């Protein structure tokens, strides 16, 4: 009987450790995936790239049509439409299909791959949020745990996020962002269709993705800092008030 008790106690302790580590990881995952999701759906971010890198002058597609391109992509990435393809009018007045699909360029195929990748991000966001909410409810309501212990785990998740960002930032300095960008594409995509000579790389040049990465990293870091400081400050003030 004593052996069974110790075995059960040990198993419960292991489960507690695993679920706590999972919570810390999910806090970090929520910060990252939610930022990516916001960037995917931010029309202003697309327009920022169009304006900064003079895409209208480069492609001959006017600003109004470029905004439509951004809206269509957002709808496509969110599975509200079946294709991102659309007909645009160039500077000369001629109309043409924006994305190439055939020969050396398979831009629609690549955008479909990107959409699946974004769907994985969305599922990861929903799963991590669900776990965090479930853990909090079980921890506070069923286990009757102390809320400041929970705040400590949130703080650890924020520290983990900042540590990963620092590591990636250091890698960017040592390796070069362009190399990391290409290695990421080789790792994530099983085909070479992310390399194109059509309109897709002219709409979204490499420098735009570098900006997106830095904006995203800054947003994640800011979110982690605010959440981390709050999860440290609230218990600190609480215990200080209690003496």
Looking at the chains present, what oligomeric state does this protein adopt? single chain
Mean pLDDT across the residues is 92
Strand proportion, as a percent range, falls in: under 5%
Number of domains: 1
Commentary on this structure:
The strands form two sheets. The protein has a two-stranded antiparallel ribbon. The mean pLDDT is 92. The protein contains nine helices and four strands; from the N terminus they run H-H-H-H-E-E-E-E-H-H-H-H-H. The chain has helices at 2-40, 43-52, 55-59, 63-77, 107-142, 147-175, 177-188, 200-203, 206-242, and strands at 87-89, 95-97, 101-102, 105-106. The two termini are 44 Å apart. The radius of gyration is 23 Å and the shape is elongated. The chain is mainly alpha-helical and 243 residues long. Helix 1 packs across helix 5 (107-142), helix 2 (43-52) packs antiparallel against helix 4 (63-77) and helix 6 crosses helix 7 (177-188). Helices cover 77% and strands 4% of the residues. A hairpin with a 2-residue loop joins strand 3 and strand 4 (105-106).
Quick overview:
With 243 residues, this protein is mainly alpha-helical.
Features of the shown structure:
single chain; 243 residues; mainly alpha; two-stranded antiparallel ribbon; 9 helices; 4 strands; 4% strand
List the helices and strands and how they pair.
Blueprint: H1 2-40, H2 43-52, H3 55-59, H4 63-77, E1 87-89, E2 95-97, E3 101-102, E4 105-106, H5 107-142, H6 147-175, H7 177-188, H8 200-203, H9 206-242
Antiparallel strand pairs: 1-2, 3-4
Helix pairs in contact: 1-5, 1-6, 1-9, 2-4, 6-7, 6-9
